[in-house]
Known about the structure:
The structure is a homodimer. By secondary structure, the first copy, chain A, is α/β, with parallel strands linked by helices.
Amino acid sequence: MTEPVVPAARKTYLQGSRPDIRVPMREVPLTNGDVVVLYDTSGPYTDPDQKTDVRRGLPPLRARWIAERGDTEEYDGRPVRPEDDGYRGRRSGAEGNGADGNGAPREAFPPRRPRRATGGAVTQRAYAQRGEITPEMEFVALREGVTPEFVREELAAGRAVLPANVNHPEIEPMIIGRNFLVKVNANIGNSAVASSIEDEVEKMTWATRWGADTIMDLSTGKDIHTTREWILRNSPVPVGTVPLYQAVEKVGGNPADLTYEIFRDTVIEQAEQGVDYMTVHAGVLLRYVPLTARRKTGIVSRGGSIMAAWCLAHHKENFLYTNFRELCEIFAAYDITWSLGDGLRPGSIADANDEAQFAELRTQGELTKIAAEYGNQVMNEGPGHVPMHKIKENVDKQQEWCDGAPFYTLGPLTTDIAPGYDHITSAIGAAMIAHHGTAMLCYVTPKEHLGLPDRDDVKAGVIAYKIAAHAADLAKGHPGAQAWDDALSDARFDFRWEDQFNLSLDPDTARAYHDETLPAAPAKTAHFCSMCGPHFCSMKITRDVRRFAEERGLAEEEALAEGMREKAEEFRAGGGRVYLPIAPGGTG
Amino acid sequence: MTEPVVPAARKTYLQGSRPDIRVPMREVPLTNGDVVVLYDTSGPYTDPDQKTDVRRGLPPLRARWIAERGDTEEYDGRPVRPEDDGYRGRRSGAEGNGADGNGAPREAFPPRRPRRATGGAVTQRAYAQRGEITPEMEFVALREGVTPEFVREELAAGRAVLPANVNHPEIEPMIIGRNFLVKVNANIGNSAVASSIEDEVEKMTWATRWGADTIMDLSTGKDIHTTREWILRNSPVPVGTVPLYQAVEKVGGNPADLTYEIFRDTVIEQAEQGVDYMTVHAGVLLRYVPLTARRKTGIVSRGGSIMAAWCLAHHKENFLYTNFRELCEIFAAYDITWSLGDGLRPGSIADANDEAQFAELRTQGELTKIAAEYGNQVMNEGPGHVPMHKIKENVDKQQEWCDGAPFYTLGPLTTDIAPGYDHITSAIGAAMIAHHGTAMLCYVTPKEHLGLPDRDDVKAGVIAYKIAAHAADLAKGHPGAQAWDDALSDARFDFRWEDQFNLSLDPDTARAYHDETLPAAPAKTAHFCSMCGPHFCSMKITRDVRRFAEERGLAEEEALAEGMREKAEEFRAGGGRVYLPIAPGGTG
């Protein structure tokens, strides 16, 4: 995994105001001498100068920054218990997925002492509100090409989050907010079959290699704590979880047996490990559950249905809602970012934008304001399945009701009739919702609704979502996004094939497709494409037009049109012929 | 190719007012006893009761309708010449693609006598303007679920086209217009390598099998005339071409050697064969060519660059523009539909919506009005490469300047950074532009810009575009589109796996993905999905909520909330437990 994504590319670093602020970027040297510098999520794994070893974890980039602030301390963490990994209290017959296949615990990462706040909030938002620009803020400012002060303002206002648990010093800081590049999250989960630690870690590095800005570890079952530890220690991107999944495992899988105490204990367990953001379905209120009764597809969120089942079983208000303020205190002590879950999101086109969904969103707004009192960083999760004409309303309401907090949506899918292609049905919705202001997109793979994604599915999902995110960046007028497109367009026009491949989201696939039609090496430098062949080429004709215009330096249309006449004579006189060879492709 | 797309589906026919109006549909029987009837483009090939034989062609469904009108007559058509198939006047060294690989002509389809008008226009538009409802109009009315009178009005107003050359009686009529289902075109071309007639025809049937509403034959090189004849005689969908491609072949590949006479002769050649619509780049005016000089990617349309080269070489106005009225007369005599080409469409994000593009669109508007004088049916072609925020302007201007004529766009791609994935970059733009009013979408395959699409690419392109078209139909509020989604959503909620597969755009892929995770046959009837497993399921909890609500017939929230309390007691009393098993997937 140390080979670069783009063989021709180099890892480069933008140097900050102090030696230990070094922001990784991907530098793509072009054959015309230009260099394009791109945002890079792939971490130290693609830097040939860094040796990585999953058994030692990544270097703790932020450790000094955290320590220097002097507002946290190490302490003896919560002891890891067998049930954290699913080895006690399991129902009989449950399948383990331990590394040896027999349920034996997976090898643990060497123990560490966690940190937490000694006093007030140690969140990036709290620092921003106090006017402090942290190294993390400067890091993301360099990464995004904006000023540190702008980053600080956005964080202070709650319009952006910088997920960075004090116990996850390994991350390369990144920011999520509508005024920054649109981000992409990839979900990963542990394998049902035995797999090595290297394999588990590799799922994360595979997703970040193709551009995932964060990952969510949605593992369940055995070894969940230990696997998460390995992932966190090796992840250069923020890691999110849904603590409810682990909590419900600890009570043998029955939502009715859940208690707030078990949930809180799970949050602390994961906080000490370094989880950067947590999905919490605190907005699924008892009175909203009946609103789903007449829906076409009811409740489709797993977390939402767990809490609905709990409310049903006890006829009590959601314990995540009733204990929200205490959770805010915990989140403030580790700098965990809220990802307020949308447990009542629509599960079909028919249910989009209904009363249940928007009732929960209103409560997300209420909770967002409460979390702000504690200096917490907050995102709001959003749908799901939404037809195109109802997408904008989701962003508008979320932005209004949640005070401009970053919106984090799953797709949305714009139709339900294409199982097997939901990375596409949802990339359409994702691009649109991001254009309207969603800050981060949770990817959907081709296996959505059908099965568990494999390596190819993860890549397909990430690429589809990088397309959606980038299309939105372009539509929002991001200058860096436009420059990237321009560089590729220029390479295309100049028939610099290698540059086209190296600038593309997936150089391997672009190159492979080109090779199928024109496999020979010289074709990579040929001044034509497979569509029109070597003798006739529309781009060639354009170059004639352009060269003429440039040589003459004529700015006015009329003058150019005049020039055309001369050009026509020159063309005929020179006997210059253009040929249209065989080969179909493209329209007209 | 006679096996159905959906093994469980049946070919069914909607019966019109006369015995020979029978509209094919796909009837999907569901396991719950419901039947869903879907639009079907796959032609007689998927009807087990019809025997098809490519060497005899499809039955001439419309032959009687055309003859009955008494306004056309058979005549001795233009003799087929060797150069029509590229066997004379070719430059030396040109590669043939004859069936034997040595340039020997391909076997011809048995000769037929063509028809043409004896007097005035024989177009569906002209009939509509006279108040006549043709069998073709009734056919599409049944197919679309609207009244024949509505079809007539839309055709008369020029807001829709029904491409149906009098020499292509084999088609199952279809309509293209913003007030009908969004349509998808697939481009096919002949192979550079020798292939059988069956193989050439199969490219068309493969595309229509997955949902292509029309195909464009963009073949070049040898056997172009003969291959087109085989395709037309076997195509149940309208066939479009770009006659300029063949015309330039006839002059040895040099645009400068083109003449209007050669072009007109090619149009008549193709008109007699039955081509239903033709892309003609009549809007590429001499004075617009210099406007492309400062573009990032100049002229990228092949037809546009041929005409620009011709204008450059002669410094004369585009002969397609100067002879437009005579072409209108020819089009009226065969009912060929105009697809006014956009030769100056943008080839990169940077060039979108520029002066060159909109100058040509204004000329398309002028030509659209002229064609209307002749009773011609007209579509306007559109881009191309357009960032999301500039998409709507394209439709708005086209609709305004071209009097509401159907817009027919290629994508548009919403970013240029993902070669290898342009079916996705463009499905985003296609869905959006169709939502805003584009009537037909020309597909883009994953090989766009890189190479020639193979069978898998064609399928990937068609499916991506069916998604885009359907997402737009939903967003436009089409009741039939919503019903299709609802049927699939219901099947998903009820865990009717076979119904989900059978209702999907690609049942094979959906089934295969499901099999990867849950291969056993019982899993197809299992009341759970691979994401949450058999014991815990969010949809199951919802069903509990819903069943309770329905049993009690309680309409009000309060009553339902009251019911929740009873439900909670029942739940605890019955010891009914819900289990959350291992298995990741999906967010929260």
